[in-house]
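As agreed, record copied across for absentees:
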Amino acid sequence: MRYSRELFDMMEKYAKAVGIDKKLIDGTHGRIWGGSYAQIALCMVRECTIEAMMDAKDVWQQRLDESLTVQERKHVTVIDGYLILALPDCPAGGMRDCIRQVELDTSVCRKQVIWAEEGKGPEEIWRRIFKITVLGLPPSPELSRGANMPVLNERQKSLWDEFGKTGPGGAAAHILAGRLR
């Protein structure tokens, strides 16, 4: 399947950011990562059809359920489960209704369907991954170099300099006293 390596790497990166960092199952078409409070299963659906998606959902939901049960019994606590079904392409027509039904079904775990879209890199191609609430968000970009200081006239520059020296109270006092105009 196209882009599968990139998606696995991206999922691992964002899952790790929120403490879901242990690979519990590592298969060719899917993986399960676990942490102390949640597990995420990612399954690459072989083709963009309802039948292929439902088959993948059934198989990976069962695997996730078994993995969750083991961890819950071991730690005597409830563990959240997330099943991510990755389609190779944007779904068409009636498949969207089926996707909605899959995502609304919360038996065993929460479910999310994502798909590859046009984009320049994995984070654009798989941008629907950012709708998965349990995952960490991408890092904020650095401040732009285009965010330069605005051009100030002499009065504004004088006020800005005074504000920098004395703070807002001092600058206001100078304005009220008539020393800054």
The mean pLDDT is 86. The first helix runs from residue 4 to 16.
